[in-house]
């Protein structure tokens, strides 16, 4: 069946039909397409195109189609160009010529915008739920090893000691921003486009606010041409998905390293790792590698739609049909990755000794010593020089920070006073960083408690 044809003497070629059909992927929209159509039937009744009885008949037919679509048999032999056409054919089979009225004043251009918006709204809600669960798992992990000290890195070199929960809370903050981004995106998705027609606005005086209310939208779109030509809201979603995947992939990368033999900090659960077909000793972090890997696909989805939209003349162009594979793929990978990351976090255990030893073997406390000198009045650049020389000598003589007593420090440079020797212990320097946002134990305990409160607010 075609929704057009009167103007043509010949039908489409088999090649064109195969090339242009979207049913394979847009069939995922069937539920929202039907829900939108039921609301549209009400709108048609309100403007007098359908009688109340006709409305009821169409609404009942739509509901029956929705039910049928859950069976595989429904899809057998379906060869329509898209899901919208298929639904109308099914409507005709049930309601006969009455079905011919449903598309009055509607175009697939406003219909497809509506469908994607309805679909994305639910998808965003589901992703937000997954994100909240992941964030809760991070907080649980942070509470479990609240006093563990690990090296923080810059340039992949040991930089300064931090509390393990401080590191986990950094990811919590990234995901909190991602969550905000999804909520912002949802606002732009939650706008009702029906009534725009093909691009000039419908020729029927619909109460568009009433359609929006029926479908639970917060507002209506303001320009019919904008509706036909716009996919910003989908790009917003892909952008939000991209940043979340970016954060997930950085977490994955960290933990691939931290769980490997060279770091040895983390034990990943057996359930999220796999073995080797030849090397019996292997326990590979495949779950994390796949999160990192899927990130590439989602970034690609964003670029693909972004470039598809670039330079399209106003308004709708068939190019825009390519939005759906990108949106669906990104949404699937995002949700799958969030769920996988949550299970990894829930089943991973910190082994506190190796990271604590890594801090002690290194000069991660160097800044703490320089800060101590600066607090006693030595200008910071001079303090930096003094500690730099101390590190150089220590590296040459294979001395660790703990090998330096108060006497030895004073002998090395008289600027070191007796009370400064305690900063060779990582925990001492950490305790000087109690300002908000710092890694001091009190600051971190407060941040952790605040994060719990914020998380329950975010879930509302
Ligand atoms: N399958 C099309 C899409 O997803 C529906 C809109 C078709 N509109 C048109 N003017 N040909 O974009």
Give a verbal description of the structure.
The chain is mainly α and 460 residues long. The protein has helices spanning 14-20, 23-26, 30-46, 52-68, 72-75, 83-95, 108-144, 164-189, 208-214, 224-229, 232-258, 286-309, 323-347, 353-361, 366-375, 380-396, 406-412, 426-431, 441-458, and strands spanning 149-154, 157-163, 191-192, 219-220, 266-267, 349-350. Strands 1-2 form a two-stranded antiparallel ribbon. The protein has a two-stranded parallel sheet with strand order 3-4. Helix 9 (208-214) links the parallel strand 3 (191-192) and strand 4 (219-220). Helix 11 (232-258) packs antiparallel against helix 12 (286-309). The chain is elongated and about 100 Å long. The two termini are 46 Å apart. The mean pLDDT is 97. Arginine (ARG) binds next to helix 7. Arginine binds at residues 22, 26, 82, 108-109, 112, 316, 318, 320-321.
């Amino acid at each position: 069946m075609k929704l057009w044809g009167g103007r043509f003497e010949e039908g489409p070629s088999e090649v064109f039909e195969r090339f242009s059909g979207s049913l394979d992927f847009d069939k995922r929209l069937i539920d929202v397409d039907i829900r939108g159509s039921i609301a549209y039937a009400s709108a048609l009744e309100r403007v007098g195109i359908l009688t109340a009885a006709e409305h009821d008949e169409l609404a009942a037919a739509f509901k029956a189609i929705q039910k049928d679509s859950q069976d595989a048999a429904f899809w057998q032999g379906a060869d329509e160009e898209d899901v919208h056409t298929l639904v109308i054919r099914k409507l005709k089979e049930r309601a006969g010529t009455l079905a011919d009225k449903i598309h009055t004043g509607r175009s697939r251009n406003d219909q497809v915008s509506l469908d994607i918006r309805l679909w994305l709204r639910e998808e965003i809600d589901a992703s937000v739920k997954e994100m909240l669960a992941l964030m809760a798992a991070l907080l649980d992990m942070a509470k479990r090893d609240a006093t563990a000290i690990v090296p923080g890195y810059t340039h992949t070199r040991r930089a300064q000691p931090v509390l393990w929960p401080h590191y986990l809370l950094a990811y919590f903050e990234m995901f909190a921003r991602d969550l905000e981004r999804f909520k912002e995106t949802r606002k732009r998705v939650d706008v009702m486009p029906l009534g725009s027609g093909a691009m000039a606005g419908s020729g029927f005086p619909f109460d568009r606010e009433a359609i929006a209310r029926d479908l639970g939208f917060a507002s209506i779109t303001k320009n019919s041409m904008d509706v036909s030509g716009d996919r910003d809201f989908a790009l917003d979603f892909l952008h939000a998905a991209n940043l979340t995947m970016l954060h997930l992939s950085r977490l994955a990368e960290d933990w691939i390293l931290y769980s490997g033999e060279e770091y040895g900090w983390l034990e990943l659960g057996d359930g999220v790792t796999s073995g080797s077909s030849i090397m019996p000793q292997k326990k590979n972090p495949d779950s994390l590698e796949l999160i990192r890997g899927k990130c590439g696909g989602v970034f690609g989805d964003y670029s693909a739609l972004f470039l598809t939209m670039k330079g399209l003349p106003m308004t709708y162009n068939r190019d825009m049909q390519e939005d759906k594979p990108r949106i669906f793929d990104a949404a699937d990978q995002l949700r799958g990755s969030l769920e996988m990351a949550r299970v990894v976090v829930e089943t991973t255990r910190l082994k506190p000794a190796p990271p604590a030893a890594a801090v002690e073997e290194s000069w991660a406390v160097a800044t703490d010593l320089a800060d101590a000198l600066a607090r006693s009045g030595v200008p910071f650049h001079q303090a930096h020089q003094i500690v730099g020389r101390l590190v150089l000598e220590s590296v040459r003589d294979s001395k660790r920070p703990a090998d330096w007593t108060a006497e030895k420090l004073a002998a090395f440079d008289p600027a070191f006073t007796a009370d400064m020797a305690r900063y060779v212990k990582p925990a001492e320097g950490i305790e000087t960083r109690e300002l908000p946002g710092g890694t001091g134990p009190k600051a971190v305990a407060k941040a952790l408690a605040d994060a719990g409160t914020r998380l329950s607010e975010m879930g509302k």
